[in-house]
Amino acid sequence: MSQVTAMAKQLNPMSTECLRIVQVTDPHIFAEPEGKLLGLSTRVSFEAILARIQKEEIAPDLLLATGDLSQDASEPAYQYLLDKFHQLNYPCFWVPGNHDDADLMEHTLVGQNVLPHKRILTPHWQIVLLNSVVKGKVYGNLAATELEFLSNALKEFPERHLMVVLHHQPVNVGSSWLDKLGLRNADELFEILAQHEQKTSVIWGHVHQDFEDTQNDIQLIATPSTCVQFARESEDFAAGQESPGYRYLNLYNDGRIESWVHRVDELEYTVDYTIKGY
Ligand SMILES: [Fe+2]
């Protein structure tokens, strides 16, 4: 588990019928304001997405940011993100990604509505945020302390529905280069989740594409990046054609999740498809 004490945050959803979540992931913000990933300014696309979220009629109860928040793990990038999240009037939570520095985030990406909590509780749901980062590696792994944190959370509230939030994909998404860089010990995660009798879901970032599946009664969800996408079903690294996106998730009291992706199509940019890595 990260340095942040695993505190439970009791959240009172604005709507009694469901908890409304907006997920943003993999914004890859650089220290330099003009930083680009494969030709796309990551700050410009992130700001376009935040502006869209703020304009939409859906009023989220909270935001989840699922890693690779900074491309260069830099303090200016986290300061920028903190400032942007402060413009939202609801709680924002995060997990680190392979490009991030979790220790630095714990010091810089907190304050006001940006919260360090790794567990969110509502009367019907428990949301557990896990750090899947292995320092210096692109692939992920859940340390024993993270697995224990999840296990204990389930023992404490076995009657609540569960959503696990992490950066790395625990199942293959169909691109061989990317699936080598997923969560290495997903078996251990699923072993714990198999014990849980209520509705269970896992959401993540990292794969820069929309993905939804259900396996062994566990709902599995990945979300497009707020910047460049990765091509689907690709042997090797390749950028995708889709626009930057984000996801809404409505968590109902009976454990049902309704979820959909929005994309920002009006941004003008040219993805550099010649780049063979990111
Ligand atoms: Fe990423």
CATH superfamily: Metallo-dependent phosphatases
Report how far the terminal alpha carbons are from each other. Answer: 27 Å
CATH topology: Purple Acid Phosphatase, chain A, domain 2
Q: What overall form do the CA principal axes indicate?
A: globular
Strand arrangement, major sheet? 1-7-8-9-10-12-11
How confident overall, as mean pLDDT?
93
Helix content: 10-25%
Question: What is the H/E string?
Answer: EEEEHEHEHEEHEHHEEEEE
Write down how many β-strands occur, each being a DSSP E stretch of 2 or more residues.
14
Strand content: 15-25%
The Cα radius of gyration reads 17 Å
> What would you call the structural class?
alpha/beta
Q: In CATH's first tier, which class applies? A: Alpha Beta
